[in-house]
Amino acid sequence: MSLPAFSWLDGKELSFSVGPRADRALVHDISLSVEAGEVLGILGPNGAGKSTLLKLLGGLLRPAEGTLMLAGRNLADWRLRERTRLLAYMPQSGTVPEGMCVEEVASLGLLACRSARARNTEAELTARCLSEVGLLTQARQPANTLSGGEKARLFLARALVTEAPVLLADEPVAALDPAQALHMLQLLRARTRARPMLPDSQKTGAAGSCVLVLHDLTLAARFCDRIALLHQGRLVALSSPASALTAENLRRVYGILPRYVEGVPVPWNLDGSAPA
């Protein structure tokens, strides 16, 4: 018998503003849920509110209005240590601590759940995650000597070692070459489908969830189950890639005219420009 649908995250009418009088809305009245086994892509132009929305979902920002539930319970009611076992966050850019090697930086993700694991198990887990992102052979290399793309993969490994069922990643493939970007998204999708919930959860058997901020339309169309398309802090579409990434929506949000290859959008011209 199949398990009933389960939402890891459920946001209702989320809003967030900045400014001296909180009069500049970065996110306005957004409602969405993130279901078990789902890869949700957050897309939109620069300044659309993507990173702000991701931080709201991860509890890094407190919404001015609206509510956010994590596993059916108000996010504010979770103790920080409990929450970090459920939610892992990969920032858009991160700082590598001075004097630490690759392996040590990756293992920082274990701090939230160190008491639950033996030291040898932690080492095995760290090695496995470094292997998954292609950095195991560089485990003892000084982390600050990595390239930009390698650092991005390291930050992903640091998030993966938590084994949190929900992963929030802000532009995880922006610095990667095409082959590495494909590998990382294949990895994230596979882990999302397969990852079980925590043993002490009442929803045992549900898969994890992954929320990605992306700029690449073709990768989003290929690897995301649903797309949340933002424009000026508002939700324009929340549906399958085919329904969200229509020519009209892309013209309205990005000001571009796409072409479609096997149903996948490819940015082709600026709106109003002469065809190539």
SSE layout:
Elements: E1 7-18, E2 24-35, E3 39-43, H1 50-57, E4 65-70, E5 73-74, H2 80-86, E6 87-90, H3 102-107, H4 119-132, H5 148-160, E7 166-170, H6 178-194, E8 209-213, H7 217-223, E9 226-231, E10 234-239, H8 241-244, H9 247-254, E11 256-261, E12 264-270
Parallel strand pairs: 3-8, 3-9, 6-7, 7-8
Antiparallel strand pairs: 1-2, 1-4, 4-5, 9-10, 11-12
Structural class: alpha/beta
The helix/strand series, from N terminus to C terminus, equals: EEEHEEHEHHHEHEHEEHHEE
**Overall 3D shape:** globular
The number of domains is: 1
Strand order of the largest sheet: 6-7-8-3-9-10
| Main sheet characteristics | 6 strands, mixed
Strand content: 25-35%
Q: Give the distance, in angstroms, between the N- and C-terminal Cα atoms.
A: 53 Å
What is the count of helical runs? 9
Number of strands: 12
Remind me, CATH topology?
Rossmann fold
Radius of gyration: 19 Å
Q: Briefly, what CATH class?
A: Alpha Beta
CATH level-4 homologous superfamily: P-loop containing nucleotide triphosphate hydrolases
Arithmetic mean of pLDDT? 89
| CATH architecture term | 3-Layer(aba) Sandwich
Helical content band: 25-40%
Low-confidence stretches: 199-204
Could you characterize the architecture of this molecule?
With 276 residues, the protein is an alpha/beta fold. It has one domain: P-loop containing nucleotide triphosphate hydrolases (Rossmann fold). The protein has helices at 50-57, 80-86, 102-107, 119-132, 148-160, 178-194, 217-223, 241-244, 247-254, and strands spanning 7-18, 24-35, 39-43, 65-70, 73-74, 87-90, 166-170, 209-213, 226-231, 234-239, 256-261, 264-270. The strands form three sheets. A six-stranded mixed beta sheet has the order 6-7-8-3-9-10, sandwiched between helices. The longest helix has 17 residues, at 178-194. Residues 199-204 have low confidence and may be disordered. This is ABC transporter ATP-binding protein.
